[in-house]
């Protein structure tokens, strides 16, 4: 094995490109959910705290589908796992048609739940899939690279939502036609991608988490035989991922509300600023990946960025006008590398338990449905004050990143 690990191999390039596109697709869907959150408040006349059930429907699906998706992937392989995820994604999108016709918040939540079951399946499959497309030593680089396109989808979604859903007088009307039309188009596109992916030939994959060199085989034989929850770094990664997505769900759910209620922007303009914040996330992911490759270890970048976000949340909560709004935008910059880095660190040296571990880490995404409910209780009174809560999450992430070298050493 050469001293410098390649990013990937030529035989995996087409598959890597296709699987990376999946990151874009679920980034688009997840961020559009935050636009719907604001839209439903106006159109269906619900409170901020009740609109948080949009996030619960989206992220709650991860708790339901995490383990089943992992079992399905283990039995039927990566490709069939992707096809299952895309099918559920398309079905959920098409369910927006009867939901809009019924003008029912409950029906919309059901449609979002089915759609998110597809996202959970894709996410469970895609991370270990990308990790398997090359050397384990560069798995976190590949995952961060793919997550870059997740951010691209996230950038585009608020502009799509702001233009087609929130612009003009739609936010004050009972017209859900734009929502129905948008998700119908999404459903058609996802269905076509599923058909295309069914014809893609996937090379035989040697999972880098299982295929190891002789030196590691001697040193890590006992590690591979350990039970799943005896791997301390994996357990802490699952906990950290839960709190990470708690912070994401809460921050994103009330970003547009902050721009509208605190800064006085139109909802559509606040949605565009949300798109800018997602651009900052993409930029942060690029810079963070470079830092990991040339300057610091992934876990060090993680805890430094967590500390920065604690500072950002404190500034946002102070209600300092433009300064606080800039800090709100910058939260996404420092948040950028957290999800893929926690995921990759949690899967390190898990051997044949990699797919099972991936399922449990994905289940942590349910936090994105829990935290907006808590923040919504405060946001009903003061949106700015609600941003004190994510500080708890970033403290947990800091602890994981800072203690990771010792945790992984214990696991080995």
UniProtKB/TrEMBL annotation:
Q: What is the lineage of its organism?
A: Bacteria, Pseudomonadati, Bacteroidota, Sphingobacteriia, Sphingobacteriales
Kindly give the InterPro entries that the UniProt entry links to this protein: Lfuc_symporter_FucP (IPR005275), MFS (IPR011701), MFS_dom (IPR020846), MFS_trans_sf (IPR036259), MFS_TsgA-like (IPR050375)
**Could you list the residue ranges forming a coiled coil in this record?**
none
The answer, when asked if Nucleus is one of the entry's keywords, is no
Q: Which organism is it from?
A: Mucilaginibacter ginsenosidivorax
How does this chain sit within the bilayer?
Multi-pass membrane protein
What name has this protein been given in UniProt? L-fucose:H+ symporter permease
Q: Which UniProt keywords apply?
A: Cell membrane, Membrane, Transmembrane, Transmembrane helix
What Pfam families does the record point to? MFS_1 (PF07690)
Tell me yes or no: is Ion transport among this UniProt entry's keywords: no
The entry's localization annotation reads: Cell inner membrane
